[in-house]
Amino acid sequence: MKSKTTALILSVLVGGLGVDRFYLGYTGIGVLKLLTAGCFGILYIIDIVNIATGKLLPADGMHYEEDTKVTPAQMQPTFSPYDELEKISKLYKAGVLTDDEFAKAKSDCLAKM
Questions:
Q1: Whole-prediction pTM value?
Q2: What SS3 state is found at 58?
Q3: Which of 35, 45, 46, 57 is exposed most, by the fewest CB atoms within 10 A?
Q4: Is-contact 12 49, C-beta < 8 A?
Q5: Is the Cβ–Cβ distance between 89 and 97 less than 8 Å?
Q6: C-beta separation of 8 from 51 below 8 A
Q7: Using one digit for the tens of pLDDT, what is the confidence trace for 70-86?
Q8: Which burial class, exposed, middle or buried, applies to 89 when counting CB atoms under 10 A from its CB (0-12, 13-18, 19+)?
Q9: pLDDT tens digits, residue range 30-52?
Q10: What is the distance between the alpha carbons of residues 29 and 43, in angstroms, rounded to a whole number?
Q11: What is the pLDDT of residue 68?
Q12: What percent of the chain has pLDDT over 70?
């Protein structure tokens, strides 16, 4: 897996020499950038923007390494049925749920156990 951060750093520092394209697996365009100084600076700037926005992916079609990692913010908290039952009970005691709503929510929660 290729790193988006590494590709972006290579593109900014030595992108005019095509090192970023060689890293991503695009050998032909890497040689073109090497021989034309980043296509006279135009492709150099375009590659920086495309890598930063995620539009230029590695040649093997895989996503960048950072895109596949799960961050703590993306993780869903896992609640056990016991935690859910306790939450329903607190809502019922606070008067948020009616008797019928509490009975239905309780039966749904107990069915999960």
A1: 0.58
A2: coil
A3: 35
A4: no
A5: no
A6: yes
A7: 666 666 666 677 888 88
A8: middle
A9: 999 999 988 888 999 999 999 99
A10: 10
A11: 60
A12: 88
32's tokens: 């073109």
11-16: long-range pairs with CB below 8 Å, 24+: 11/44, 11/47, 11/48, 11/51, 12/48, 15/44, 15/47, 15/48, 16/41, 16/44
d(C-alpha 97, C-alpha 12), whole Å: 58
pLDDT on residue 22: 93
DSSP 62-88: PPPHHHHSPPTTTSPPP--HHHHHHHH
Q: Which helix (H) or strand (E) holds 52?
A: helix 42-53
Amino acid at 50: N
The token pair at 30 is 């890497």
Say how many CA atoms lie within 13 Å of 12 toward its Cβ.
8
